[in-house]
Amino acid sequence: MDWRERGFPVIEQGQGRDTSNARGLPPRRYEDARNMQKSNCTALFRKDASMSLMRKLIVVASLVVLGVQSALSTCPGAAGISNPHLSCPDFSSTQTPITVGANQRCELDIAPDLGSATLIVEGELIIRFEEDLVVDQLIVASSGWISADGQGFTPGNGPGRGSISGSGGSFGGRGGKPTGSFLGATDARCYGNSSSPTQRGSPGGGSNGGSGGGVVRIVQATQAQIDGIVSANGCPATSPGGGGGSGGGVFISATRLEGTGRIEANGGRSVGSGGGGSGGRVSVISDVATFQGEMVAAGGRPDHGTDDVILTKTIQSTSTGVRTLSAGRPFYLTAIRTTGTSSQYVNDFTIRTRVGSDPWTSYKRVQSASSAFVFQGNTAQTTSRTTYLDVPLLAQSLIFDLGSRTNHFYLRAELLGYYPVTIEDISCGQDTDTSEAGGPGTVYIQDTGNQRMVIDNLGQVPAFKYSADCENILLSESGKF
C-alpha cells in the first residue's frame, strides 16, 4: 500500500502539499505557510535529480520509541546496557564469513579491515567510529542490529547543537523549538550532505540535552541484505528542559541492496519544555535495489502534546468478545498504556489497526518480522505499563488480540497519541506556548541512474511567529530559512 493511501501527507522536493486554504488566511500568509511545510534543510540535494515517491519510504516529523528510548539503544542510561557484555568475533581472521552471533554484543572503536570478507550480523554491532566499513558482502539478519545510536556530538558540542533555551539538535533537518521562545535564524542550523553523509548528529540544547546519532558508512559491498535494523538515532534528553539529539548519518553503497528490515536516523525525544531533535540523513546508493523495508529519518517528538489519551476501554472476561476501539477520525498512535488488577490481568497482547474501511493490519516493528509485535501487559499488579511505538502509527480503529492471561481477566487499555496539526490549525496567536517536534531529516536514494528524495512531515506544521498585523511570518525570528 502506498503511504499516501495510509494518510501520510507527502511533500516532494520542489512542490508543496495540495492543501486548501480552509482557514481563509491572507494569501501571503497561506503561501508562506505552505512553504514552511517544506523547510527541512535539503538545499544540498541536486536540483536536477528525479523526484518520485519510493514505496515504504518514510521521513516523518515525530518519533516515538519503544520504552524510554528504543528497545535497541546505545544511548546513555538506556535499560540493559549499563554493564554491556562485549563479545566480538576475530575481525582479523582470513576466514569468512565473520559472524556476530545472535547472543553477541560487539562494540567497535576502530573500523576493521574486512576487505573481501562476508560479515553476518545476527546480534548487536555497535559502531563508535566515523570511518568507512569496507566489506564485500553484508547480511543483517532479522535479529541483527548495526547501531551508531547516541554516538554523535555530546551536549554543548556540534555544529547543529540546540539552543541554550532547549531546542532540539539539528542535522538533516531543524531541531524543534522549545516552549517559551523561537529559534533565531542562526540557532541550531542544519548541515551536512544529503547524498553522502559523513558527519555526526548534534545534541539537544538546554539542561542535559540528548547526544546526537553517530555515523554508519558501509561501502564497496557487492551485496547488502538488511532484514534487521541499521540505525544512527539521536538520544532523548535526560532531564526537564532538554532538547532531543538529532539523528546521525547512514550511508550504504552496494551493488545490490536487498532485504525487508529498516534503515533509520531518527531524532531523540525532548523532556519537559525542550524541543525534539531533527531527523538525520540516510543515503543509499546501489545499482540494483530490491529492498522492501523502511527508510526512516524522523524528527524526535516533544515531551508533551503527543501523548494525549485518545481512547480508553476496559476489556474483561465478563464482556464477550468486545475488544475493538474506534475513534471518530484518524489519529497517530504513539503508545499503549495498560492496567490490570491484583488477580486478574493480561500478560501480553498484539494489535491490529486500520483507517476507515481498510483491511486490518497487524502491527510489526519491522516488516521482516514473522509475526506481530508482542506488547507486554500486566502481571499480578495494579500499576500501569506504557509501551511506546517506534514511530507514530496512523490509525482510526484498533483490535486487541490477547495472549496469555488469567482465567478471569481485566485489562484497562488507554491509547495515547495525537491528531495531526495541519495548515487549517494555524492561527496568528500560535507563537511560544508549546515546544515542537524536530523537523524531518533526509533520505536520498540512487539506483539505476535515478535519484530521489521524499519529504514527509506527517502533517505537522512548524510553529512560527507573525507580524503584529498577522499578515507576514517573521522568518528570522521563527528560526526558519
Order of helices and strands: EHEEEEEEEEEEEEEEEEEEEEEEEH
β-sheet strand percentage: 25-35%
Shape summary: globular
The structural class is mainly beta
Average pLDDT number? 78
Residue windows where pLDDT falls under 50 for at least 5 positions: 1-40, 42-72, 77-84
Largest sheet: 10 strands, mixed
Q: How many distinct helices?
A: 2
Q: What would a concise description of this structure say?
A:
This protein has 481 residues and is mainly β. The protein is built from two helices and 24 strands. The strands form three sheets. Strands 1, 3, 5, 7, 8, 10, 12, 14, 23 and 24 form a ten-stranded mixed beta sheet that branches. A seven-stranded parallel beta sheet has the order 2-15-13-11-9-6-4, with no helix packed on it. Strands 16, 17, 18, 19, 20, 21 and 22 form a seven-stranded antiparallel beta sheet that branches.
Textual characterization of the structure:
The chain has 481 residues and is an all-beta fold. The protein contains 2 helices and 24 strands. It has helices spanning 27-36, 475-478, and strands at residues 10-12, 57-58, 98-100, 105-108, 118-121, 124-127, 133-134, 137-140, 145-147, 215-226, 229-231, 249-258, 262-264, 281-289, 294-296, 308-316, 324-339, 348-354, 361-362, 375-376, 385-402, 410-418, 442-447, 450-456. The two termini are 34 Å apart.
